[in-house]
Amino acid sequence: SQQGEEDPQALSIQEGENATMNCSYKTSINNLQWYRQNSGRGLVHLILIRSNEREKHSGRLRVTLDTSKKSSSLLITASRAADTASYFCATDSGYALNFGKGTSLLVTP
Amino acid sequence: DAGITQSPRHKVTETGTPVTLRCHQTENHRYMYWYRQDPGHGLRLIHYSYGVKDTDKGEVSDGYSVSRSKTEDFLLTLESATSSQTSVYFCAISELQARRATEAFFGQGTRLTVV
Questions:
Q1: What CATH code is carried by the domain that includes residue A71?
Q2: Among A42, A92, A98, whose Cβ lies nearest the Cβ of B106?
Q3: Who among B41, B58, B100 is closest to A92 (CB)?
Q4: Full set of structural domains in chain B with CATH
Q5: For chain A, how many structural domains are there in total?
Q6: Residue A71 domain boundaries
Q7: How far is A35 from chain B (nearest CA, A)?
Q8: Do B35 and A88 touch (CB under 8 A)?
């Protein structure tokens, strides 16, 4: 079954604002990853955070992981129209990655 | 972009016919996956492979079979296509490090319509 679940399902903000998406999962993990999907395209890897890490940064992205709450958050700072996409969290179960249903982010100029 | 090619990119087929989708990689990654993406369901794992001739089922494997005779190719077959298999299919590849999944690289997807 799908491991991760993103919240909210949809988010609409204006350029320059910050966007925060959350992911909850059910069982213990080795790592958690975030992906972006532009309309009609395949998924693109954004960032991976290991279970022994609490926070990780990559450019305008900030990811946190709370293993005690089985949750993660993705923060996109100073959003741009080009950030409009769907965002998915993925957790590993051995060989495979399990994805949530995603958060659809719309950034308007 | 990682070297992953899915073919065909679009296909319309009739109910009851067999359909084979192909995923070809040039990255020599050991692990390959087939997902389907449907509105309201996100991505769901169909089958995956952890080596040549080594495959296993995902959460939605019924009605699908796979084969991997070479490192670079992973085939997904719909044995007898049904309308419920209308979907966008994605192939992905990855490696493991210390037995943990690392980042996955995705193909561009195949849009399959079963009429």
A1: 2.60.40.10
A2: A42
A3: B100
A4: 4-114 (2.60.40.10)
A5: 1
A6: 5-108
A7: 9
A8: no
Q: Which helix (H) or strand (E) holds B104?
A: none
Q: Are B73 and B23 in contact (CB under 8 A)?
A: yes
pLDDT band at A29 (very low <50, low <70, confident <90, very high): confident
A69: region left, alpha or beta (phi > 0 left; psi from -120 to 50 alpha): alpha
Q: List, for residues A49-81, the tens digit of each pLDDT value.
A: 999 999 999 999 999 999 999 999 999 999 999
E strand segments, chain B: 4-7, 10-13, 19-25, 31-38, 42-51, 54-57, 64-70, 73-78, 87-94, 96-97, 100-101, 105-106, 110-114
Report, in angstroms and rounded to the nearest whole number, the Rg of chain B calculated over CA atoms.
Answer: 13
CB B3 within 8 A of CB B29: no
- Report the residue of chain B nearest A10, measured CA to CA: B40
State the pLDDT at residue B42: 87
Q: Is the minimum CB–CB distance between B39 and chain A shorter than 8 Å? A: no
- Residue A103 tokens read as 């958060």
Query: Cβ of B100 and A45 within 8 Å?
Result: no
pLDDT digits (tens, 9 = 90+) for B72-81: 999 999 999 9
